[in-house]
């Protein structure tokens, strides 16, 4: 594969993602990066997010809401998805890597990894439910 040229726009996108913990969508990335660079297009943001994810520099999350979310933290970790407000939150928890071996015990093949999302109500939505 040919070397990827340095791109100021790509660096801006990556820097924005590193500043966030809320796993923004491409539209949110676009709206924020555009404040620094008004000439950037939505297509450029989408292309660069795809490239960064394909290169493994960011993680693309597909949590079931029909849009991709992006995470600059590529280390193994788990996510919680609020079914009320749609928030995607990092979970602070011990690794459950052993689940791959459990799944493979009754499987006639090779499991290379897993993606796990936890769903429910986030703290803010749970509080609102109690107040209602």
Structure description:
The protein is of the alpha+beta class. It folds into two domains: 1-72, Winged helix-like DNA-binding domain superfamily/Winged helix DNA-binding domain (Arc Repressor Mutant, subunit A, Orthogonal Bundle), CATH 1.10.10; 76-132, Dna Ligase, domain 1. Helix content is 40%, strand content 16%. The chain has helices spanning 8-18, 26-36, 42-55, 98-105, 123-131; strands spanning 59-62, 68-71, 78-82, 88-91, 117-120.
Give the number of domains.
2
Cα-to-Cα separation, first versus last residue: 56 Å
The shape, in one word, is flat
Number of H- or I-type helical stretches: 5
CATH architecture of the largest domain: Orthogonal Bundle
User: Which value, in Å, is the CA radius of gyration?
Assistant: 17 Å
Strand content: 15-25%
The biggest beta sheet is recorded as: 3 strands, mixed
**From N to C, what is the helix and strand string?**
HHHEEEEHEH
- CATH top level class name of the largest domain: Mainly Alpha
CATH superfamily of the largest domain: Winged helix-like DNA-binding domain superfamily/Winged helix DNA-binding domain
What are the main properties of this structure?
132 residues, flat, three-stranded mixed beta sheet, 16% strand, Arc Repressor Mutant, subunit A, alpha+beta, 2 domains, two-stranded antiparallel sheet, Dna Ligase, domain 1
């Amino acid at each position: 594969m040919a070397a990827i040229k340095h791109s100021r726009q790509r660096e801006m996108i990556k820097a924005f993602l590193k500043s966030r913990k809320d796993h923004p969508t491409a539209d949110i990335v676009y709206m924020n990066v555009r404040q620094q660079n008004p000439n950037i297009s939505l297509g450029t943001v989408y292309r660069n997010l795809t490239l960064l994810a394909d290169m493994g520099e960011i993680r693309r999350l597909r949590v079931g809401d029909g849009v991709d979310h992006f995470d600059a933290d590529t280390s193994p970790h788990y996510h919680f998805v609020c079914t009320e407000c749609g928030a995607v939150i990092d979970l602070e928890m011990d690794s459950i890597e052993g689940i791959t071996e459990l799944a493979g015990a009754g499987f006639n093949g090779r499991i290379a990894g897993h993606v796990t999302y936890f769903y429910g109500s986030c703290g803010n939505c749970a509080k609102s439910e109690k107040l209602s």
